[in-house]
Design brief:
Layout (H helix, E strand, L loop, with lengths): L2 H34 L19 H6 L7 H32 L5 H11 L8 H10 L6 H24 L5 H8 L4 H12 L1 H17 L2 H6 L8 H9 L7 H33 L4
Helix pairs in contact: 1-12, 3-6, 3-9, 3-11, 4-6, 6-9, 6-12, 7-8, 9-12, 11-12
Amino acid sequence: MSMKRQNFIRLALTYLVILIMFVIILYPLAWIIGSSFNPGQSLSGSSIIPKNATLAHYKELFNIDKSNYVFWYINSLKVSILTMVFTVIFVSLTAYSFSRYRFVGRKNGLLTFLVLQMIPNFAALIAIYILATLTHLIDTHLGLICVYVGGQIPMNTWLMKGYLDTIPKELDESAKIDGAGHLRIFMQIIMPLAKPIIAVVALFSFIAPFGDFIIASILLRTPQNYTLAVGLYDLVAKQFGAEFTTFAAGAVLIAVPIAILFLSFQRYFVSGLTAGGTKG
């Protein structure tokens, strides 16, 4: 077999794999979008391309008299944005400390973070619930944010530390010679150079709480305090009158802030991930 034919076969197989993966990803997405425009509330008669497309489900979601969707959306944005902000702040400080300083317990601390990132938050649901009850944080967004931020710190600390290790320490030493203190070095030298990994951490810490259901369903009790995942589940969990097409419309709108954030940080995303995984 000639080299030219071999290259053609490899290229054809590559495109075939990409096409199969594209169909696997696109098919459920097309179904959920198509279902959101189908009339009625049942999925049994829904189709990817609806015959009588309607925006009624989207209008119903934003009708405050009939739906709490607007409150759920605002709650999710509030929880996710605050989680993202606090996570970036705490992770930046923690990762910088582990990357630049040598202190007693540093190795054990990193090892503890490595173990903690292997354990998901929902594995400690009972402990989280009891702690939230004792601190009177049940049915509050503050309690939810605290749990999310705490769960984000171990993994993202390792990720950011790996990136900060690639920034030459000579920059710190030069700044110290010029009279710069630790805080100034951190704020004016290290953080501007760490924008790619900060963007990655920000994106991860926004997406996780925005789509979380398990922890939010344990801590939140009042319908108006629900986040999107809990509220949308409530639409399809009813014994009678489950609103599947309205659920589909609400699910489609979830992607909007995530897509905007991803497109805003896209230029940093690949470089931040690859550099963060090179050293640790």
